[in-house]
Amino acid sequence: MGSWILAVLFVGFGSVFIRMQKGRRLLSLVKASTATGTLCYLLGWSQVFFAFPSHACRDFFDRDPAVYLDRYESGSFPLVATCHWDNGEQKELVSGWINPLLFTCMAVLIGCLVALAVLAYRRNRKGHTR
């Protein structure tokens, strides 16, 4: 699942929500970042939830000396599922593009919401009701 093709598809799916009509750009960016971020989080969460250490993090008995699983770390924010072996090797089970895309979507969403709040405050302060 380390492919960037899914990331491009997710961003393409989110861009469907973008409308370039004047006055609706921020709302469409809120929709696009929410849709893309939700898809990204659900995929990453499924990679964490369905990463069974007994299958994904096998011991290496064929090596000399044998390498055993030391610990398994998982978390849902940020999305992490990592196998650690006693010889220092690590294996990340969540795709490398998921967390950066998720945090980018969150930053765009927060920026748009702040901009919408500032615009609403300015409209109400001037007495415009639309």
Can you put this structure into words, describing what you see?
With 130 residues, this protein is α+β, with helices and mostly antiparallel strands. It is built from four helices and three strands. A three-stranded antiparallel sheet has the order 1-2-3, with helices on one face. The longest helix is centred in the last third of the chain and has 29 residues, at 98-126. It is elongated and about 75 Å long. The mean pLDDT is 82.
Detail the topology: elements first, then pairings.
Blueprint: H1 5-15, H2 25-49, H3 53-56, E1 69-76, E2 79-85, E3 90-92, H4 98-126
Antiparallel strand pairs: 1-2, 2-3
Helix pairs in contact: 1-2, 2-4
Query: What does the average pLDDT come to?
Result: 82
Largest sheet: 3 strands, antiparallel
Q: Could you list the spans in which at least 5 consecutive residues all have pLDDT below 50?
A: none
Number of helices: 4
* Radius of gyration, whole Å: 21 Å
Give the total of beta strands: 3
Strand order of the largest sheet: 1-2-3
Distance between the termini: 47 Å
